Amino acid sequence: MSPPARRHLLDLELVFVTGKGGVGKTTVAAALALLAAERGKRVLACEVDAKGDLASLFEAAPTNFNGREVAPGVTAMSMDTEASLREYLKLNLRIPVVGRIGPLARAFDFVATAAPGVREILTVGKFTYEVRERHFDLVVVDAAATGHIVGQLAAPQAINDLVKVGLIRSQTDWMLDILSDESRTGLVAVTTPEEMPVNETLELAERVAAETTVGLSSVVVNRVLPELFARAEEETFEWRRRPPQAGRLAELVGEDVEPMLEGARLAVTMRRTRTAHLERLRQGLDPAVPVLYLPYLFSRFHGLRTTRQVAASLAEELGF
Amino acid sequence: MADGPAGGRGERRRPAKGPVAGRGPAGRRDRRRGAEHRAGEAVAEPPARRRPPREGSLDGLLAAKEIAIVCGPGGVGKTTTAAAAAAQAACHHGGRVLVLTVDPARRLADALGLSGIGNVERRIPDEAFRAAGVAPRGQLWAAMLDTKESWDALVRRHAPDARTRDQILANPLYRNIAGRFVQSHDYIAMERLYEIHAEGGYDLIVVDTPPTRNALDFLDAPQRMADFFSSRLLRWLIVPYRSKLVNVASKPFYQVADRVLGTQFLADISEFFVLFQTMHEGFVERAESVTRLLSDRRTTFMVVATLEATPVREAEFFSRELAQRRLHLGAVVLNKVLPPYFGDPAAVRAAQGVRDRAAELAAALGGDTAQLERVLHEVAESFLNFSVVARREAEQRAELGASPEVLATVPFFDADIVDMTGLLELGGAIWE
C-alpha cells in the first residue's frame, strides 16, 4: 500500500465503480465524485442502472442522459442507451432528424437485444467519448454489478474481434486505447467484509485480469466495524458479563444491563467473523492493489450527509 | 417440530461448533419480544404498523403452493433464504422439494455436498440433515442454473433439424449470447423453472432469482423473448440475407447499419436471425406458457429485503409491481435485522448511564479500574451506536407498506451460514 499508488485513484480520468449488490457501490461512486470535485476537478458522475439512487445520494431530482449539476463541480447523468445511440448517430453520421431516428432506434434496440455487446458498447462508448473530448477531468461510473461488469468492459474488445471493418471498428480502437491505459482508466471494486461479497471480489479480480483490458485500481471495503477491545480488555469484558459481575453492574446502574452486554458480545463476534473475511480478501488480491477501508456508519441518515461522511473517510484513506 | 431453533425471534448465540440448536437463551430473549416496534425514546414514534394477519405463516404458505419465487434486491440474502425455506419445507412437509439456485456460497454448497452441481438436480444427502440433528420427512434436492447449458438444451429442443441445430450452436453470435447476453439469465431461469415444473417431479420448487439490474427483469423475460421472435423487425433483418432485396421500409436502416457495423457483421447478424427464426414458434409458445405459470395460483412470490433505505425502496417497488400484475405476494422476509433489544428504551437508558458514569462504576466494581472504565465505555458506546441503526431500521420498517400473507424477520446472524444447522436455524426464524 504505497502512497503513490494510492493517490493514483483521483488522478485517473475514467473510474468504473462496481461491486456485488447491496455493498454500497453507488454510495462509494457518489463519494468519490464529491471528493474529486472538492479537490477542484470537474466531475461527471454517471449511473448505469438508472434506478435513481445516485441522484438521491446528492438529494437531487432524478437525472437523465443530458446531465445536471447536483453538487458544485459534479454533473450527474443516467445512462440511456437509446439516447446514447442518438447522440452517436448525430455526432458520427450527421443524422440530425429525430423523426427518422425513432424507428431506427427501435431497430437498433432490437439488434442490441440480440447482438452481444451493442448495448454495452453504447454505454462504455459514451464514457470514453466524454474522456476523449475532455469535457470533464474525471468520469465516475456507478457501473454494473460484479456479475455484469466484465461483460461491459470486455464489450469493446468483443466487438473489435467480431467487426472487422466499418465505423464501429475504428471507434473500438480508440475506446480500447483509453480503457487499457492504466494511467487513465481504472476499476474500483467495492465490497463489504462478508463472505459472498469477498468471494465475488476475488473472482472479479481474476476475471478482470483475464478477460478485460482494464486494470483494477483499488478495492474499497465498506462498512468495516470498529474493533471494541484489545485482547486484555476482551478478557475483562468476558469476565464482567458473567452473571455475578453483570448483576453487580446492574445494581449500580439501576437498570437491566444484559441487553447492553449482549449487544457488545454481538459486536465483538461480528467483527471477528468479518476480520477473517478481510484477511482472506487481502491474501487473495494482488498485493499491488490498494485496499481502502470505510467505516460502518452508525447514523440515522442517508442522502448527502452520508455521501459527505463517506467522502471524508475516503479522503483519509487516500492520504489527503 | 423439534428441529427448529429455540429463541429464533431474538438474536441468537451461535456456538462455534456443533448442533446445539435448543440451547439458546430463549427465555431471556422472549421477554423483549415486543420491543422491536418501539422506535426509541428521543424521536417521534413511527405510526403504529398494521400487523399483518397472523394466521399466515411460511409453513402454511409453502404447504399450499407448488412454486415459490424468491426475489428482491441484490445482497440481501436471497440465495440463503431460498435454501433455508426449502430445507424447512423438506423437513416439515415431506415430499420432494427442489431449490433451484443461482450461486450459493461456496462453503454452504460444500457442506451440503453440492459443490460442482450443474443443471441436473441433485439430492442433498440425509447425512447433511443428520449432522444437524434432524430427520427430514421429505427429500431436499438442489440444482444450479447453468445459463450456457440451458440455452444449448433449448436450442436442441426447438431446432427443426440437426443441421440447423449444429449451425446455431456453432454460430459465433449465438455463443456470445448464451454466455454474455445479460438478460438471457433471466429468461433461462424462468424457462428451467417451467421445464422442471412440467416434468412434475417435485411437490415444491423454490426458485432463487438471479441478480438482475432490475429486480423485475425476470418477470418480463419470457414476454420479451416472445416479442423478440415475433417482431417485424426480425423479418427486416432477414430479408437481405435471403434475397439481397432491401425493401423501402428497411432501406434507411441498412444504410446506417452498414456504415456503422460493416457488411460482414451485418451478414453474421442476419444469419443468426435466420437460424433463430426457425425456432420461432417453439419459443413464442414456450414463453407464453412460462408467463402463464408465473401467474398461476400455485405460484407465490417471496420478497427478501434488509431494512436499509435502498433495499426497502426496491422491495416496496417490487411488491407494488407484483400487485399490479396480479401476481401473488406470499411473503416478505426482512433479513439481517438487528435484535429488538437495541431499540428497547430501558436498555438505551442503561447504556447511557454506563457511558456517562463509566469511571465511577469502574471504581465501584474494583480491579484494574482504568481498563474497566475503557471497557465499560466501549460497551456502552457500541450499544448506543447500534441502537441508532436499530432506530433507522424501525423507521424503514414503518415505511414498508407491503401487506403480504406472511411477514417474517430474520435476526442478524453473527456468523456465516455454512452448514445445514445454520440453514435450519435461519429457516426456523421465518417458518412460523
SSE layout:
The complex is a heterodimer of chains A (320) and B (432).
Chain A lengths: L2 H9 L2 E6 L5 H14 L4 E5 L5 H5 L10 E4 L2 E5 L2 H13 L4 H17 L3 H16 L4 E5 L3 H17 L4 H13 L5 E7 L3 H17 L4 E9 L6 H10 L2 H11 L4 H27 L6 E5 L8 H14 L3
Parallel strand pairs in A: 1-5, 1-6, 2-4, 2-5, 6-7, 7-8
Antiparallel strand pairs in A: 3-4
Helix pairs in contact in A: 2-13, 4-5, 4-6, 6-7, 6-8, 7-8, 7-9, 9-12
Chain B lengths: L25 H6 L26 H7 L2 E5 L6 H15 L3 E6 L4 H6 L10 E2 L2 H6 L7 E6 L2 H12 L3 H9 L1 H9 L3 H16 L4 E5 L8 H14 L1 H12 L7 H11 L1 H15 L2 H16 L3 E8 L2 H16 L4 E9 L7 H12 L1 H8 L3 H31 L6 E6 L8 H12 L1
Parallel strand pairs in B: 1-5, 1-6, 2-4, 2-5, 6-7, 7-8
Antiparallel strand pairs in B: 3-4
Helix pairs in contact in B: 2-3, 3-19, 6-7, 9-10, 9-14, 10-14, 11-13, 12-13, 16-18, 17-18
Describe this structure in words.
The complex is a heterodimer of chains A (320) and B (432). Mean pLDDT of chain A is 87; it is low at 1-7. An eight-stranded mixed beta sheet of chain A has the order 3-4-2-5-1-6-7-8, with helices on both faces. Chain A has one domain: Rossmann fold (3-Layer(aba) Sandwich), CATH 3.40.50.300. With 320 residues, chain A is an alpha/beta fold. Chain A is built from 13 helices and eight strands. With 432 residues, chain B is of the alpha/beta class. In chain B, 54% of the residues lie in helices and 11% in strands. Chain B contains 19 helices and eight strands. Chain B has helices at residues 26-31, 58-64, 78-92, 106-111, 126-131, 147-158, 162-170, 172-180, 184-199, 217-230, 232-243, 251-261, 263-277, 280-295, 309-324, 345-356, 358-365, 369-399, 420-431, and strands at 67-71, 96-101, 122-123, 139-144, 204-208, 299-306, 329-337, 406-411. In chain B, strands 3-4-2-5-1-6-7-8 form an eight-stranded mixed beta sheet, with helices on both faces. In chain B, α15 (309-324) links the parallel β6 (299-306) and β7. The longest helix of chain B has 31 residues, at 369-399. Chain B starts with 25 loop residues before the first helix and ends with a helix. Chains A and B meet through α4, α5, α7, α8 and α9 of A and α8, α11, α12, α13 and α15 of B.
